[in-house]
From TrEMBL:
Region spans: Disordered: 265-291
Protein name (database record): Variable surface protein
Organism: Plasmodium vivax Mauritania I
Top-level taxon of origin: Eukaryota
């Protein structure tokens, strides 16, 4: 079974660069914290004994995941925290669930039963805001890419404020972050949405999410004049994309005023190695081997630490386990 480690909290926080994603990582960290010291731990044990019944070599991981999910859903908490679930909370929880299922080879039926236990209870007390289970593998093609784009989309307004700033420096990791997400969008659209099959629910769901992403991207980022950045279109404008996202793009993508300030940042060190604050090479959309290209990009970024963005570290963990 392919092990897809989407959110490696330790790695991402070690090289964390983006404050706007900090709240998300904190929530995932909270979802994943050990359950043994929870004061309601004894309530979770009998529930998961009923849910996880099939003996197997991973039964300890299965039960541990079950108890964490039961805790995170809040069904057995006397504070009724689930009453305050927002759509964003529900999405974050489902993202954590998907990651954990892939990471620890958790059967889908365990998640289904945990959510059903929660839904049965909240339905009886007439709670209107219910967090459903998102079976991502049934909903989308390449769910990992959809999750990555949804994280970007949900933070689009914050990203817009950053690129719209009047700072006298260039956020190179942010450029890398934007470029890699654009690449994912283009690859997904090219593969699944050029011809939409209305009878294919997964493909339709995938294309619907890409449409939402593009609408937000165009609303918040594209088509505006920024002091330090030239944001490329999501449409098939390869030249515009490469002007920002090819290996030598940092100078090319910037406005003339800021590009003139960049050469000093690109001088080689005495041993001819890349400086730690240079942007790592970014692969082009035309490269179909997405896994290896992103791996090459991110290997440099992680190696230089200062150039490692959280989303690229995330992509690196995913693609390294896929190829």
């Amino acid at each position: 079974m392919i092990q897809l480690i989407i959110f490696d909290i330790i790695l991402i926080n070690k090289y964390f660069m983006y404050d706007f994603l900090n709240d998300i990582w904190k929530r995932y960290d909270n979802f994943d914290k050990p359950v043994e010291n929870d004061r309601h731990y004894n309530k979770y044990i009998p529930v998961c004994d009923l849910i996880v019944t099939k003996p197997n070599e991973n039964i300890d991981n299965h039960k541990n995941f079950c108890m964490k999910l039961v805790r995170n859903l809040g069904r057995y908490s006397p504070t009724f925290e689930f009453l305050n679930f927002t759509p964003e909370d529900c999405t974050d929880l489902n993202n954590w669930v998907y990651n954990s299922m892939k990471k620890y080879d958790i059967p889908d039926n365990i998640s289904v039963k945990c959510f059903q236990d929660y839904i049965d209870f909240v339905s009886k007390i007439n709670v209107k805001t219910i967090c459903p289970y998102y079976p991502y593998d049934d909903m989308y093609e390449e769910p990992i890419n959809i999750i990555i784009l949804k994280i970007f989309e949900s933070n689009m307004n914050i990203i817009q404020k950053i690129v719209d700033g009047t700072y006298d420096y260039i956020n190179f990791p942010l450029i890398t972050y934007i470029c890699e997400c654009i690449k994912i969008y283009k690859k997904m659209y090219r593969q699944y949405c050029r011809i939409v099959d209305a009878d294919n629910a997964k493909r339709k769901g995938t294309c619907d999410m890409l449409y939402i992403f593009k609408k937000a991207y165009n609303s918040f980022l594209f088509g505006k004049i920024y002091k330090n950045y030239k944001i490329p279109s999501l449409d098939n404008d390869e030249e515009e994309y490469l002007s920002m996202c090819q290996p030598d793009a940092p100078k090319l993508a910037l406005t003339k005023e800021m590009a003139e300030k960049i050469p000093a940042l690109q001088d080689a060190t005495q041993d001819g190695e890349r400086k730690s604050d240079d942007i790592p090479p970014i692969s082009t959309v035309a490269d179909e081997n997405q896994g290896s290209s992103i791996s090459r990009t991110v290997s440099t970024a992680v190696g230089t630490m200062a150039g490692a963005s959280s989303i690229i570290a995330l992509l690196y963990k995913v693609t390294q386990n896929c190829i």
